[in-house]
Amino acid sequence: MVSAVALIAMSSTAFAGSVIVGLCDGQMSDASQAKSKPGSGTISAACVIPAGMLSDYAGMNITKIRFAIAKTGGLTDLQAWVRDSVQGVDLGSASVSSPSAGWNEVSLSSPVVVPEGQDLAIGYSFNQQKSCKTILLGGPDEDNDYTPAFNGCWIGKNGTWENRSETSGYDGSVCVELVIEDDRLLATNLSVALSSKQLAVNKDSAFAFTAVVTNLGEQAANGYQYTYSINGGTPVTASSTALLTQQAHDTINVVVPASQLSRDLSSNVTFTAQSGDNTANAELGFAVYGEEDTFNHHLLLEEFSTEECPNCERAIKTLDAMRNEGFEFNQITHHCGYKSDFLTVPADKEYEWLYGNDGTYAPAAMLDRDADENYPRQVDMLVPVMSVGYANDFRPILQYALAKPAFVSVEPSVSYDPSTHGIAIHVDVNKNGILDVLCSEPRLSVVLIEDSVPQHHQAGYSSDSPFRHGHVYRETISSTWGDAITWNGNNASADYSVIVPEYWTNHEKVEKNLSTGAELKDSCIVRHLEVVAFVNAYNPEKRSGCRVFNSGVAKVIPSVTDGIASVSAENASQVISERYYNVAGQESAVPYKGLNIIVRTFANGRQEKVKVINK
User: Which of 138, 252, 343, 570 has CB 3.0 to 4.6 Å from 28, enough for a Cys bridge?
Assistant: First the structure.
């Protein structure tokens, strides 16, 4: 879900007022869910308020801190504080001589001015002789991919801090909030945030958006009036009877019918809420498109699978069945999710972050890294990773994903120099304005994959099975999460180069022959290599913010011979590659000792096999 920034508009009549700012939204969990640290010492709990949440209050005074705890027994010397970081010095503090279970509000010894463009850490510390289970969390959390909660739960002991925000079971943010007071603040102080699950909508479909109206002020709003319009058109006015006390929310869901929309790649909705003299405004951009605005969609399917995974045979067969039925998609297979194997590389492990904080599993897949709410999920968190079931279960999911439109094209091209083993890659990217609405800073990712890699011991297949791994993630050519794109209008291009090795050595683990103990080498077969390029978003604090918008693939070896109208007699017999196989079928770029089967590939594409003995 993409949200507009809430805009606070003050009327001409000002009252001395206050606002409460925090990540827990004024909520607290049940005392039975309280957290703690073991042993004696000084225990601290905090959250970090991002500068964006404080920007409207720069120059105003922080006068109080609110915090909620589960119990008071077992703790002493409690202090609430404001810092520039969890490990920083106190900018302001307050001693709490008689705390109570639940919410507490204390005045700082002296006010702290809200800085401009700076995060603030707010929290409390206390002494304990043994574990005191009193730290409460509350409000939105990372299970819903709530971005600020990435820093919502810091817990420390004797000055050593841990960020538990991304830890399973630590849902929400530490229950601590700032109270900001200023003559410029209204007693009733509305704010509006707009969001939509679909910021690109077909001109024949309705557009739905949500407005969340919040009263930040200390004086309640007894109902309010709201008005919205599309592209400055005829305003629609209605009213809400909701009683909004301080920090209370009211949600308005609006559906704009297709009859009121027309093709416009730069559409916007404006929304105003008013209570008495107080008004708040917000705006949200979206795109209304026609079929002429779309590109061919080349879905990127990323599979998580390993040889150790007893259920991965199911996913292998499911994806093969989808191809046999005519479904087309580009695939990358990450050898991780359930243990690891001889094909696991470091980048594979980095992508495990996309599973969420409740652990990993396999077989699994991502479809354009899209965390669509309609996809099945194994965890509460809105993440792009899902389990891969049998063909009948996976087919409708794949059909749904393939039907989504694309608003950018990605076209990689490759040339290979066999004398240097160098691959030169050129990627052309073309977009329209809809991509700008969906993603302000798209990235270009380029990776090298390899097909037809002989198995070692894939679960579900016998050792003498001809099964070979496909689409194996071999090497990251761009940065792991993509490179910034430099646009020239709606077009961009990028060039990369890589030297491919004779043997892959970037594995997480190296396996050995069970009989001889010799290291099993993993040959790089150039004719099996492909380059996959894709345009993607990346938000390091939001797993649902890493969507792939389109992809393209190019084989490496066809660039040597494809497109040649004829092969002359002089070069038709030129050998362009020569590989060696032993009696076990293992491949190498150099001869094995003993019997070898040599496979030679000629410039005209012809292959021949010759048996020789290397003494």
Answer: 138
